[in-house]
Each structure stands twice: as C-alpha cells, then as structure tokens.
Design a protein that fits this description.
- The complex is a heterodimer.
- By secondary structure, chain A is mostly helical.
- Chain A has helices spanning 5-16, 19-34, 40-46, 48-51, 56-73, 75-81, 93-101, 105-140, 143-160, 165-179, 205-221, 230-237, 241-253, 255-270, 276-289, 302-326, 332-343, 352-355, 357-378, 382-385, 393-410, 415-433, 438-461, 473-508, and strands at 182-183, 190-191.
- Chain A has a domain at 5-140 and 199-408.
- Chain B is α/β, with parallel strands linked by helices.
- Chain B has two domains: 33-130 and 257-331, D-Maltodextrin-Binding Protein, domain 2 (3-Layer(aba) Sandwich), CATH 3.40.190; 132-254, 3-Layer(aba) Sandwich (D-Maltodextrin-Binding Protein, domain 2), CATH 3.40.190.
- Helix content of chain B is 47%, strand content 19%.
- Chain B has helices at residues 6-30, 49-65, 80-89, 102-112, 146-155, 168-180, 192-200, 212-216, 243-247, 264-269, 271-284, 288-296, 309-325, 327-331, and strands at residues 38-42, 69-73, 96-101, 122-129, 131-138, 158-162, 184-188, 206-210, 221-226, 255-256, 258-263, 304-307.
- The termini of chain B are far apart.
- Classes of the chains: A mainly alpha, B alpha/beta.
- The interface between A and B is large, with 47 and 54 residues.
Chain lengths: 509, 335
C-alpha cells in the first residue's frame, strides 16, 4: 500500500470526468436519503441489474455517489419537519427542527450540507492518506470496546433527560425494552415477539422512526396553522441568498467541530457492524460535552446540527475501509458494493492495493470527488427547500402521512409495518403531549439491541465473567473517557454554582 | 326505459370484472411459464455467500427460462423468517423460489419447531455446492496443528467463533470436544464475515465455517482441519487433514450445501413448471462461463457439485437427525 501521487492525480482527473454520473446519482441519493423507508442499500439492490452491467469503476462511482448523498439527504426532513430520513439523522432533529421553528431553516440546511460534505471529505482524505493504519482500527475494536462505544451513545439518554430526569429515563428504558424484542443473539430463538413473524428480526427501525417522529409530528401539526412561528414565518417569506451565506459563515466558523466530529464518524464507521446511528449519537454527545455552551443544545443550536451530520458522513469512508483492506464489508451498503466488485472477478483484500491500486484508491478518490461535486449541487437548493415550511398544514399533514405510511411498508413490504408505524405514532404523540422525549425512546430502540449483542458476546467469551469488560487496555481507556464524560458536566455545574455563589456573597460583601 | 347513471355504469363494470376474474386467472395460469420475473427468498443477509452464489447461477439460468430473478433477503431467526415467509406468504405457482443453505437451515428447522413442514411444504431440488466445514486460525496464531488446539482445549475452554450455533460447523467442533474430552466454547457472530473478523483480530482462538470463506482470505488464515473423511480441497487448505484421520474419531461429514427450493404444492399441481425448472437448472453446471464466473468470486471451483432432489432430501433428513442428536448442546438446554 504505497503512496503514489501520480496515481491519485490521475484518478482524481478520471473521477471528475464522471460528473455526468455523479450529479444524477447525487440527486437520487438525496431523494432516497430524505424519504424515510428508503435508503442507499435498498436503492442499490434495486439498481443491481444496472450496475452489474456497467464498467466496475463507473459502477462504484455511481454507488458511492448514491451512498454519500443518502447520508446527507437524511438530515433534510429532520431539520424541516422533525422527521429523520434514517437512523443516522435522528440526532439532527434535536437542534435542526428548533432552528426551523425559529425561521432559521435555511441556515440549518446549509449547516447540515456543509457539515456533511466537509465531514465526509475530510474523513475520505484522511482515509486515502492513512489507509493501512486505519485498516488496523477494525482489528483493535472488539466486542468489549464496542460495549463502551455504544454506552457513549446511550448516555445521551441521560443528557436529554437532564431537564426532567425521571421522564427521560423512563422513555429511554421504554426504548431499551422495545429493543429486546426479536431473536436472541446466542441461540437464535424468537423472544417477546407475540408470535408475529414480522418481529423476529426485532422491532424494525423505519416504522419506529416514522411513527415516533413523522406521524406524531403530523398529529401535533394539526393543532397549528403553520410549522414555523409568526416571526419565523415572516423571516421564511423573505428568504434570500444572504441566509445561505449566513449558514455558510456559521459553518466555516465551526470548521474544527466539523473536522473532529467527522473523524468520530470515520473511526466508528471502520468498525464492522457499527454505523451512522451510533456515530451521530456519539458525536452529538461528545460535541455537547466539549462545548462552551452545552445549555444551548436542544434549543436550536448550530453545533447540534453540525455534530451528527458531519459524523454520519464521516462514516461513509469508514465502512469501506474493512471492505477494501481485508475483504469484509463494514456495513450493509458496502455489502451490496462488494457483490458488484466480486461479480467482476475482483478479489478484495490487501492484495488489491498491489494488483489493482487504481480500484483500491479509486474508491476513496471517487468519494472525495463526489463530495466536492455534491456541495456545488446541493448548496443552491437550500433556499428553495427551506420554503417547505410555508406549506399550509392542511396540505402538509396529509402529504407527510401518506408518504411515510407508504415508506413504512416499502422497506420490508409488510402491511404489519404500516400498523406498527401508526401505533408508534400514537405513542409518540402521547409522549410529546406529556413531555417524554421521543429521541430517548429512539436511542433505546436503535442502540439497545446493539448493546445487548456486544455485551452478550463479551460475556460468552469470558463464560459469564463480567470482569471481561475491563480486560483490554483500549477498553479501559474508553471506560475512563466515559466516566470523565459523565462527570465533566456535573463538575462544570458545580463550578458554575460555586462561581455564582461567590459572586453573590462577594456582591453582598 | 332504463337510464344510465354513473352508479349503474360503475355497478356494471364491477359485475363484469367479477365474472371475468376467474377466466383471467385461468388464462394467466395456463400462460407460458414463467410469465413474470422469478422471485427468490434468501434467508441470509445480502452480500453473503448465498447471495453471491445465487446471482452467479441465475445469470445463466435466466437465459434458459427466459425471465430474470429478483431477490428478497430475510435473515431473521437463523433463517426462520425467510422460510416461514416463503412457505406461508408467497404464491405457490412456481414463480417463487427459495435459495437456502440446507445444513444450518435444516438444523434451525429441527431446533425451533417453526410453522412449516419439510418436505410437505417445500423441497430442495437443485444443490449448487458442497462446502466442507473447517476449523481455522489466523496466520499469527500459536496453534500450528489441530492437535495443538485440542491439547489446549484439554487445559482450558477454547473460544470458537461460529456463524451461528445451529450450524454443521458448530456441530463439528462440539462433536470434536465430546470425542476428545476437550472443551470448546462456541461464540456466535451472526454471519461468515463477522466470524472471519473475530478470528483475524484475535478476539477468539479459532473459528469454524464452511471452507470457501477462509480459503478466500488467502494466507491471512490457516486451516487446521476439515470435518469430512476426505479433504477434496487439500491443496487450497494447506493440506489440512480430515479430523477423523487425526484423532480416529467417527464424526460425520459436515458440510454446507446451498440449494434451490420450491413449494411442494407446485411440484404436484404444476408438474410442467417444475419440470422446466428441474431440467434446466442442472444444465447451468455445464456452462463454461458459469464455472469461470464462480471461480472469479474467489470460491474454490471444486466445491461446485450438482445434486438432484433425492440427494438434497437425503441430506436434509440427515441434518435433521444430526440436529436431534446434538439438540442439548445446540440449544443450551438439558435433556
């Protein structure tokens, strides 16, 4: 795996020549990413007959553009309608939607686009530069380490619950309980499925997302005339290019945050089995932890949009690292790409870098070029997209309900999933009305099964000895970081109250 | 005089359609088979071995039967979801097939008692491959021979990564433990790829899988033994010896076999349709391009072995018997 500038430049030039594939694929990716129930993986499976007949490097460019754009597209409905396009965009709702309600939808979209593109681009460039080293990460992150990484994401439940601890924890526990429905991870025996075949794979994420966010939000919208507040409406009516530039300025001021949260995504993406959902929740939690203004998170804070969006696109290059370096796909979309590559008789793994360096590096160069062309395609559209919020509720609600119910069906083609989405819609509505956090429920549903899987595997490896969780050096470093991340906010609050008390007594003196 | 109203036109249309419907259905049923795309349920994840094998095969089968194949993946509950869905929710008209891994999925069938019956509800009719189960370690492992692994397993319980517990390869290592009084701790990783990663990153001492996967990993993996009385792929497995030859045990041949399956009702109700599928599928094995494409995937060509309906049924029944024999070890339940 040697560094070869001439090759990289040649590949870059070649990839820019594929603009006619990248731009339509980007638009397709954004659309499927923005529609809950559709994603890059199922789109690429549908399009397999097409990609299998294409030249392998062109097919990979097409698939990579769809894949990267779908991760970006997922944030658009999160910001505008509080409906995440996929699990990786769920954390974007926490601050994206409040920005829209304030009339800052266009700025939030630009923040999301810039964070997605630059987070993804930086992670890709780093991958090209340090691929051999990064390939080792997947080999060091084992089940024990993954238990702690997922715990970082789960602690977000406590962060979200901070304003009403009891309700937040109840919501998180409810999500975790839902997450245990499905086949057990050791003997593959169905558990708590009530005999429903549709629940054997666990409670499916898409109907839960649609129910908790889209349908419950639609029910809440009915009570109002417009999504945005009166002042926000005035602002949205006069959207200008200046707002796009304002969003761009806000993004560039936070370049460092885009960089490091993108790298969180890259590292988590490299671990086979981990993905955008874990990355975005962990990045949000870490971003809040190290922020100078943690109290603003959840109120429409730009940093709360940047962190998850940058991380979920940082994942894109990460998931391809194990596929190219050791021949094992890092995620389900990478698995589909692997079918195409193998169909052309190309064997993935370390030898690829000596036998077909054009293809091994070409994949990542292609990704970098896709990101560059993506920002030019998407940025001008923010102005028009943000006007979605001006559609009157009487049209918007039926549209959302119809599209999302179909989307609930689309992924697995079970009518059962449509009913499930409606049931979770009611749960979400009641949760909203009683101030329980739906995001806490969702974190439990997404991360709970993953946590159980890695925890059970660790315990099986140790034959039941819980001390296995503290048996690795990397794991122990991660445990220490987790403890610090839990204690730091408490210490900060204590410092703040002490300062306030000192100032009060000082003032009285 | 009768007046034509919107309601009467609508009623007339509905009545005509209702009367014509059986005739339309009959005509459709009698139309040349296949009259639409073939739909295939795969009870494992996309991107896995079954997916790869099925697509390589259908490229050539399509040319013989005239319709392309579409795939749906239902890997839940060790394949149980895919099978239940195929048997109970797919039309039994020959346009729906299942492409499964007979070994592990028959073991799952025996242990889980699902809502379908073999061979009453479906039957395998075309075996594609025979992939012997192997035990392997990573290249840097201190275990150089299978004897080293067993010697260590007599001192302590050795962790073994497996795709899933209900699997012929898992039975192989459990049988080896029983026969040699050594201890193995099976850790399921839910798929061949994660199992390979667990061995490569040293999380487990050894792994067990069908041989094609470790062979494709090249020199990063060392295969130590094969659970078959003959090692047909010795040259590609670093001359790994058969387990029975090393220990004088009588462990049965344990291999995975991917096969096409169809509803039993189709075999009886539409014999002409089944005949077309059953007669064209074996011809794919004679297509040189198929063998060349199969080899390009990195899997050993020697594992491609056609088996007819009888061969498949015998193998499936043998797996049921084997699963019953090892039931307590595979389920973690006593008795």
């Amino acid at each position: 795996m040697e560094w070869n500038w001439d090759l990289i430049l040649q590949l870059t030039w070649q990839q820019f020549g594929y603009w006619w594939v990248i731009i339509p694929a980007t638009i397709l990716g954004i659309v499927v990413g923005a529609l809950p129930g559709f994603n890059a993986q199922n789109t690429l499976i549908i399009l397999l007959p097409l990609t299998l007949t294409m030249d392998v490097s062109l097919a990979l460019t097409f698939m990579i553009a769809v894949y990267c754009a779908s991760h970006l597209g997922g944030g658009i409905p999160s910001i505008l309608l509080n409906i995440p396009g996929n699990g990786g965009a769920a954390a974007t709702c926490i601050d994206g939607y409040p920005m829209t309600k304030k009339g800052l939808g266009q700025q939030a979209l630009v923040l999301s686009f810039v964070a997605s593109v630059f987070g993804g681009l930086i992670a890709t460039l780093l991958t090209i530069a340090a691929l051999p080293i990064l390939a080792q990460i997947g080999l060091y992150m084992r089940s024990v380490e993954m238990v702690v990484v997922i715990l970082f994401g789960l602690t977000l439940i406590a962060v979200i619950a901070a304003r009403d601890m009891l309700k937040g924890l109840i919501a998180g526990a409810f999500g975790l309980l839902i997450g245990i429905i499905g086949t057990d991870h050791v003997y593959s025996t169905p558990r708590a499925t009530f005999g429903f075949l549709e629940l054997y794979d666990g409670v499916p994420l898409v109907p839960v997302l649609i129910g908790l966010f889209a349908i419950s939000e639609a029910l809440i919208m009915i009570e109002e005339e417009m999504i945005v507040s009166e002042s926000g409406r005035q602002h949205s009516h006069t959207v200008r290019w200046e707002d796009t530039l304002d969003g761009l300025k806000m993004s560039l001021e936070r370049w460092w945050q885009i960089t490091w949260t993108g790298l969180i995504g890259l590292v988590i993406g490299i671990i086979p089995g981990a993905g955008a959902s874990i990355a975005s929740f962990v990045a949000y939690q870490q971003s809040r932890l190290f922020s100078k203004t943690p109290h603003l998170y959840g109120t429409g804070h730009p940093e709360g949009v940047i962190a998850p969006e940058s991380a979920n696109n940082g994942v894109t290059s990460g998931t391809l690292v194990p596929m190219m370096a050791i021949g094992v796909p890092g995620g389900s979309t990478a698995a589909v790409m692997m079918i195409v590559v193998q169909y052309h008789g190309i064997v993935l793994g370390p030898r690829l870098f000596t036998e077909r360096p054009d293809l091994a590096y070409g994949v990542f160069v292609s990704m970098a070029v896709c990101y560059i062309l993506m920002i030019l395609t998407i940025l001008p559209l923010a102005r028009y997209m943000s006007r979605v919020v001006l559609i009157p509720i009487k049209y918007l609600v039926p549209l959302i309900t119809m599209l999302t119910i179909v989307a609930a069906f689309a992924e697995r083609e079970y009518v059962f999933d449509m009913g499930l989405a409606l049931a979770f819609g009611l749960i979400g509505y009641v949760a909203h009305k009683t101030q329980f956090h739906v995001t806490s429920i969702l974190i439990g549903v997404i991360l709970g099964p993953l946590f159980e899987q890695y925890l059970l595997r660790s315990l099986r490896l140790s034959q039941g000895d819980p001390m296995v969780l503290f048996s690795s050096t990397i794991g122990n470093v991660l445990w220490a970081m987790l403890v610090v991340s839990l204690l730091l906010p408490l210490w900060r609050e204590w410092q703040l109250s002490k300062t306030e008390a000192d100032a009060k007594f000082g003032g009285e003196a | 005089m009768t007046h034509l109203t919107r309601r009467s036109i609508l009623q007339g249309t509905v009545a005509t359609l209702a009367l014509a419907a059986p005739a339309i259905r009959r005509a459709e049923a009698q139309a040349a088979f296949p009259s639409r795309n073939m739909k295939v349920v795969i009870p494992t994840n996309q991107g896995g071995g079954a997916d790869r094998l099925a697509r390589t095969f259908d490229d050539h089968w399509t040319k013989m039967i005239g319709k392309p194949f579409e795939y749906d993946f239902y890997p839940g509950a060790a394949g149980q979801v895919g099978y239940e869905l195929f048997v109970n929710r797919r039309d039994r008209d020959g346009h729906n097939l299942l492409f499964g891994n007979m070994g592990p999925e028959m073991i799952m069938y025996t242990l889980q008692n699902p809502k379908y019956k073999f061979p009453d509800d479906f039957q395998y009719f075309c075996r594609l491959d025979v992939d012997d189960s192997v035990l392997f370690v990573r290249a840097q492992s201190p275990f150089k021979r299978i004897e080293d692994v067993v010697a260590e397993a007599k001192k302590r319980s050795v962790n073994v990564a497996t795709s899933r517990i209900p699997h012929p390869a898992s039975i192989g290592v459990l049988a080896l433990g029983s026969a040699t009084q050594s201890k193995f701790n099976l850790v399921p990783y839910a798929g061949g790829n994660p199992t390979m990663v667990a061995v490569l990153n040293g999380e487990v001492d050894v792994g067990v899988l069908p041989g094609a996967n470790p062979i494709a990993m090249g020199d990063r993996i060392r295969i130590l033994t094969v659970f078959n009385n003959k090692n047909a792929l010795a040259a590609k497995m670093g001359n790994a010896p058969p387990v029975n030859q090393v220990f004088g045990t009588k462990i049965p041949d344990l291999y995975s076999s991917r096969a096409w399956a169809i509803h039993t009702e189709v075999i009886n109700k539409y014999p002409d349709r089944f005949k077309l599928l059953n007669e064209t599928a074996p011809k794919v094995f004679d297509v040189p391009a198929y063998r060349a494409e199969y080899e390009k995937t990195g899997a050993p060509i020697e594992s491609v072995q056609y088996g007819d309906r009888d061969t498949c049924t015998k193998y499936a029944m043998a797996m049921i018997e084997l699963a019953n024999e090892y039931r307590s070890l595979l389920t973690g339940k006593k008795g």
